[in-house]
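Hi C.,

You asked whether I'd gotten around to modeling the 226-residue construct. I have! Everything is below, sequence then structure, no commentary in between.
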Amino acid sequence: MQISSLYSAYSAAALTSSIQGTAAPAAARQYSSQTAQDRINLSPEGLAASKKTSEKQTDAASTEQAIEAKQSALTAEELKQLSQLKSRDREVRAHEQAHLSVAGQHAAGGASFTLERGPDGNSYAVGGEVPIDVSSESTPEATIQKMQTIRRAALAPADPSSADRQIAAQASAKEMQARREKATELQKNLSGLISSDQMAKNKKDNLSLSSGTSAHETTGGIMFAA
């Protein structure tokens, strides 16, 4: 804020002195000298950063000019092909990203792309794939959850491919198998509980019957003795 104020004051004074044909005030000359000194005494890091920024801007401008030069030299048919390749590239990358976003930890790796070189010399994605782990988990419950996620991931893109639909069908089949295994386990557990309850009940009945028989024999014995 202070430097801006000094600079603004100097500008007005210098303009007035120039119009009147007089020298600039001493404060103005002092500021001008200080400004020149500040510019001269830039640190090496500052100079290097400034140079790097300038080089990046130059490279970006050169690259853009080169692209424009290449495209301006293309025929109408090549421009049409280039437009189609760019559109396909965006579509393919969005498609594979949709798979990855939903698959999460079940993706066995990143997306890989099939590239095609365009008339402008650049490469564009025309196909892609994402590896998915469709193996069963250690428990039916975990397998069910995993296969549900895989099916959603396979059908996540706006236009699932035939391979995507096959993976979704495979996940559904494994989910159904896991559900059957879960039902079998539940039935076994239920049968085990029923058997345990029945055994406990039978044991109790046997104890009651044994007690009743002993009392009867004792009574009978007493009666016979009388």
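If it helps when you're writing up: The chain is about 75% helix and 5% strand.

Thanks,
B.
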